[in-house]
Amino acid sequence: MAWILLGIAGLLEIVWASAMKSSNGFTLFWPSVVTVVAMLASFGLLSVAMRSLPLGTSYMIWVGIGAVGAFVAGIVLHGEAVNPLRIAAAGLIIVGMALMKLSSQGTGA
């Protein structure tokens, strides 16, 4: 269950990062509200997941989901540039998350 909560927390990180971009520096009301609500929910779920998962693993997976997801959201929703180096960087983050998950399997998490 902790892994599911951590995944949802990571997805909410993508939501708040994208909404923050859309808020135009917190000058637009609804994107600002979405940012704050999603941020609080993301932090809350992360804290619950950390009750049974290691700190380093939890945080790394949460940040990785958010980073790669925000990268994709930036391309799809905000027209940001995509090039081979940016894709490779995102791929390295994904590999790092997979390795972290595999390394935590022997710890009871």
From TrEMBL:
Task: Output one GO BP term.
Answer: xenobiotic detoxification by transmembrane export across the plasma membrane
Recorded GO molecular functions are: transmembrane transporter activity
Keyword Transmembrane helix among record annotations: yes
Give the UniProt keywords, A-Z: Cell membrane, Membrane, Transmembrane, Transmembrane helix, Transport
Could you state one GO cellular component term attached to this entry?
A: plasma membrane
Ranges that cross the membrane: 27-47, 59-79, 85-103
**Subcellular location field:** Cell membrane
Among Gene3D superfamilies, the record links this protein to: 1.10.3730.20
What membrane topology is annotated for this entry? Answer: Multi-pass membrane protein
The record's similarity note reads: Belongs to the drug/metabolite transporter (DMT) superfamily. Small multidrug resistance (SMR) (TC 2.A.7.1) family. Gdx/SugE subfamily.
Protein name as annotated: Guanidinium exporter
Question: Whose protein is this, by species?
Answer: Pseudodonghicola xiamenensis
